[in-house]
Design brief:
CATH topology of the largest domain: Rossmann fold
Protein name: ABC transporter ATP-binding protein
Number of domains: 2
Number of strands: 10
CATH superfamily of the largest domain: P-loop containing nucleotide triphosphate hydrolases
Strand order of the largest sheet: 6-7-8-3-9-10
Family: Belongs to the ABC transporter superfamily.
Pfam family, one: ABC_tran
Number of helices: 9
Strand content: 15-25%
Distance between the termini: 32 Å
Bound molecules: adenosine-5'-triphosphate
GO molecular function: ATP binding; ATP hydrolysis activity
Radius of gyration: 18 Å
Order of helices and strands: EEEHEEEHHHEHEHEEHHH
Keywords: ATP-binding, Cell inner membrane, Cell membrane, Membrane, Nucleotide-binding, Translocase, Transport
Length: 259
C-alpha cells in the first residue's frame, strides 16, 4: 500500500519552556512494495519520522497517509519492529506472535495457524513452543518480525531492528529481511545508521540530515535486487560499485548535503 508523507514537521516542547525543531518539511511518496531505507547520523530525526508514520507520536505539521487513509494513531495497517524486541517473557514464541490477534478477538485455532505461518516465514518453523529465554538474539528479532507480520499489515516499519545483533547474525538477518520482502511484497520503511546495511537492503535510499531533520538525498539502489537474484550478499558487499557507493554516501552524510 502506498505511503505518503506531506510537509511533515515536528517540534518537541522542552521541559523548561521553548521547543526544539526535529523535522522540517519532510515530503515522501513511497509506492506499494518499495523497500525504503532511512539513513542518517544519530539525532537527525529518523526515529521521530518513523514514530510519526507508526502513529505513536503526532507531528506538529503536515500529514501522513497510508493509501487513502490519514494516519491519526497506531493501526493494524502498519506493523512495527524496534531495536529491542520487547517480547513478553511469560509467553512462548507462538503466543508472543499471536498476542495482537488475541486482542482482536480472533479464534484460538486461527491465531495458532496464523502465528505458525508467520514463524515459518521468518525461519522459525517448529519453534513456536520455545520460551523466549530459549531463543538467541537473532531468533528473538525473528519472533518480533513474525509478530509484526501476523496481522498482515500493509506497511512494515523497522527502526534499527538489527542494531543490537552481532555482526554475523546481523548479516543473516539482512538476508532474511530481503527474503520476507520478496515473499510478501510488503512496503517496508527500514531505519538504520549503518551505511552498509542501508546500501545492501534498500531499493530506495533516503538520507536525512539535521537537526532539523530533512531529506538531503533520495535515490534508487540496485544491490537488494541483485542480492536476491544472486542468492546472497558477501560478493555484493565487496564489489567495487558497492564500495564506491559507500564512499559517496559517507561524504553526503558527513557534509549533510548533496554531493
Ligand atoms: N520527546 C522528545 N522531546 C524532546 N526532544 C526529543 C524527543 N524525542 C526526540 N527528541 C530529539 O529529537 C532529535 C531526533 O531524535 P531521533 O531519535 O528521531 O533521532 P535518530 O536519527 O533516530 O537518532 P538515533 O540514530 O541516535 O536513534 C534528537 O535530538 C532527540 O534528542
Amino acid at each position: 500500500m502506498k505511503l505518503t508523507i506531506f510537509r511533515l514537521g515536528m517540534r518537541f516542547q522542552l521541559p523548561r519552556g521553548g521547543d526544539v525543531e526535529v523535522l522540517r518539511d519532510v515530503n515522501l511518496d513511497v509506492p506499494a512494495g518499495e523497500l525504503v531505507v532511512l539513513l542518517g547520523a544519530s539525532g537527525c530525526g529518523k526515529s521521530t519520522l518513523l514514530n510519526a508514520i507508526a502513529g505513536f507520536t503526532r507531528q506538529t505539521e503536515g500529514e501522513v497517509w497510508v493509501d487513502k487513509r490519514r494516519v491519526t494513531g497506531p493501526g493494524a495497517d502498519r506493523g512495527v519492529v524496534l531495536q529491542t524486541d520487547a517480547l513478553y517473557p511469560w509467553l512462548n514464541a507462538r503466543e508472543n506472535v499471536a498476542f495482537g490477534l488475541r486482542l482482536r478477538s480472533i479464534a484460538q485455532t486461527e491465531r495458532t495457524a496464523r502465528a505458525d505461518e508467520a514463524l515459518a516465514l521468518v525461519g522459525l518453523a517448529g519453534k513456536g513452543d520455545h520460551a523466549t529465554w530459549q531463543l538467541s538474539g537473532g531468533q528473538r528479532q525473528r519472533v518480533s518480525l513474525a509478530r509484526a507480520l501476523v496481522a498482515d499489515p500493509d506497511i512494515l516499519l523497522m527502526d534499527e531492528p538489527l542494531g543490537a545483533l552481532d555482526a554475523l547474525t546481523r548479516e543473516q538477518m539482512q538476508d532474511l529481511v530481503l527474503e520476507v520482502w520478496q515473499r510478501t511484497g510488503k512496503t517496508i520503511v527500514f531505519v538504520t545508521h549503518s551505511l552498509d546495511e542501508a546500501l545492501y537492503l534498500g531499493t530506495r535510499l533516503i538520507v536525512l540530515a539535521g537537526p532539523p531533520g530533512r531529506i538531503v538525498l533520495d535515490e534508487p539502489l540496485p544491490f537488494a535486487r541483485r542480492a536476491l537474484r544472486e542468492g546472497g550478499g558477501a560478493k555484493i558487499k565487496s564489489a567495487l560499485d558497492f564500495a564506491a557507493a559507500r564512499e559517496r554516501l559517507r561524504g553526503v552524510i558527513f557534509a549533510g548535503a548533496q554531493p
